[in-house]
C-alpha cells in the first residue's frame, strides 16, 4: 500500500488516539495494563517527506483501573509526577520505509531523563484530512531512573503501544 502524506502541520486528535503500556509483574505471572488519557502532540511533514514532531503524555493520567496502584505510579518511586508531570517523545526525524513502514528516530523523556528511541511505526490509511500511525516498542524503565523492584517482582521491559491520529492543523 502506498499512501501519500501531505506536507504541512498536523495536530494530534486525542479523541482518536491512544497510548497504552503493559508490564509483567509478580515474576511475570501478572500483566499490568494502563492507558494514558492525557495525550497531545503535533508534527510537521516537510517537502522532502521527512517529519518531525512531539508527543506529550500527562504522566498523572495513566489509568490502570486500580486507584491505589495509579497513585503509587504517580509517586516518586515511579513517574514522580510532582516533579515531572509530562512524558515526551520528540521526533527528530521520521522517514517512509518500505510499504507502510515509517522509521522514527526520537528522544523519549521520562522523569527528566532523555534517551534515544528508534521505532518502526505503521502508517495506516491517510487522506487529505488525516493520517494514523500505529507503533509498538519496549522501554527499559531502569534507564529512566525507575528502579523500584521489590523482591525482583517487576523486572523486564515495559511495552508501549500507540495509535496516533493526526489531522490538519488549523492555519
UniProtKB/TrEMBL annotation:
Source taxonomy: Bacteria, Bacillati, Actinomycetota, Actinomycetes, Kitasatosporales
The Lipid/polyisoprenoid-binding YceI-like domain, residue ranges: 9-167
Entry's family note: Belongs to the UPF0312 family.
Name under which the protein is recorded: YceI family protein
